[in-house]
Amino acid sequence: MTDCDLIVVGGGPAGLAHAFWRRREQPDLKVKVVEAADRVGGWLQTTSQDGFQLEHGPQGFRADDSTDAFLRAVEIHDEVVTCAPSAQRRFVVRRGKLHELPAKPGALLRSQLVSMPAKIRLMLEGRVRSTSDVGESVAAFVGRRFGRAAVPVAEAMMHGIFAGDAHQLEVAATLPLATDIEQRYGSMLRGMRARARERAAAGAAARPAVCTFDGGMHRSAQAVADLLGDAVHTDARVHSIVRTDAGYTARCEGLELRAPELCVTTPPGPAAKLLRPLDRALGDCLAEIPTVSAVSCYLGFEKAAVPESVEGFGFLAPQGELGSVLGSIYTSSVFPHQAPDGYELFRVMSGGHAYPHEIDRPDDELLHQAGEVLRELLGIDHPPAFRFVSRARAAIPQYVRGHTARMRTISARLTQHPGLSLMGSGYKKISVVGQWANEGSRP
Ligand SMILES: Cc1cc2nc3c(=O)[nH]c(=O)nc-3n(C[C@H](O)[C@H](O)[C@H](O)COP(=O)(O)OP(=O)(O)OC[C@H]3O[C@@H](n4cnc5c(N)ncnc54)[C@H](O)[C@@H]3O)c2cc1C
Hints:
By secondary structure, the protein is of the alpha/beta class. It has 3 domains: 2-44 and 64-79 and 215-289 and 400-441, FAD/NAD(P)-binding domain (3-Layer(bba) Sandwich); 114-127 and 135-201, Orthogonal Bundle (protoporphyrinogen ix oxidase, domain 3); 291-397, Protoporphyrinogen oxidase, mitochondrial, domain 2 (Polyamine Oxidase, Chain A, domain 2, Alpha-Beta Complex). The protein contains 15 helices and 20 strands. It has a 7-stranded mixed beta sheet. A 5-stranded parallel beta sheet has the order 10-3-2-14-20, with helices on one face. A 4-stranded mixed beta sheet has the order 1-13-12-11, with no helix packed on it. Helix 7 packs across helix 8 and helix 10 (268-275) packs antiparallel against helix 11. The longest helix is centred in the C-terminal third of the chain and has 16 residues, at 363-378.
């Protein structure tokens, strides 16, 4: 039995960041991070093959005001690589064709994405007096504020970004900034303009659309793990947690830890299994948070095979447009260092809530589908020179309707267990930046 002050279960970004910030507050705190896999990082997994840099999870991160503090504290701020300027351009598939998403609300007036009556309705958004009801979906929110014609854009974004269903995802939980702006300004358009003015007045520089590191996203996890040193144990799957008078005991194969504080940062499903013996209601509530799977097919082409017009971040596909395909990232257009000289790399993602069996399809089928989508939409006719498939099973939590209420129940249950906490993307912030910020991801 090893005694310590804090046990952190899970060595993904949430677990590593939690251990890191806690030890920074209290340098003599005895922390142990126990990670089931043979490496740290959770979905921050970067591999290299034939000169291509491949991300199995996040392609990058979208920095917010909390990110700089983390990057500086971990001393990796000078390894940050920002995206190419063209990555501001994003596209959406409508009736089999790509349309550029307007970067600003004003640009929507020039876009062919919506009809003239729909544009007029969009501009009347400021006159909508209602505010979000408890449990409102993203689709209902967007339809109420901007009109029905805007709903397909919301569907595409929720499908492509969260692999989810805009009609099921809860707006207050999935897009809390949107409901905050509505509450504060009474209008999304007014609120976005006011926020842009506030940022400009505060002298805040515009942030790049997306960033990564020279060594890819895993670099951030490795940097934190290096700072934590022998506090981190890999190949250590926690199979049971027991509450004792002194706090909690976590048991792994060949390792038993005891501490007054325990933070579970695994995805909600494994957390439910570990915590149900302590508190059945808590376990049941955690088990209700759904997760979906996604497949990434990487295709590399000789540069000459890719039309010059192909540049930008990539495209999102609304459900029903491209079968099981969620969208694509023009990987080397965003981060040129991710493909060797003379090549371009694309990542086509598929699966999500509507296609749960996608994850079990054979590689050849998935790669063929990805190649066809790039051929039809981008005009890439040549066979790929490089192919790679990565599967993310039960990896993306869905903040479906009822999530906010569920979080309240979870918080109430946790008050019955002093020293026990939950962190991670299953609860409050789905992005990796949310995990680095640490305090933002607690239910
Ligand atoms: C395909 C994909 C694309 C993504 N794209 C983006 C993006 O572009 N931008 C963005 O911001 N975010 C993105 N994300 C989300 C991002 O990856 C998450 O925010 C982040 O990984 C969540 O971190 P976490 O620590 O909560 O969970 P995880 O990364 O899931 O880590 C949890 C850890 O717990 C460990 N664990 C599980 N059970 C046990 C156990 N019993 N004992 C010990 N350890 C255990 C796991 O092995 C894992 O290492 C993406 C995710 C995926 C899957």
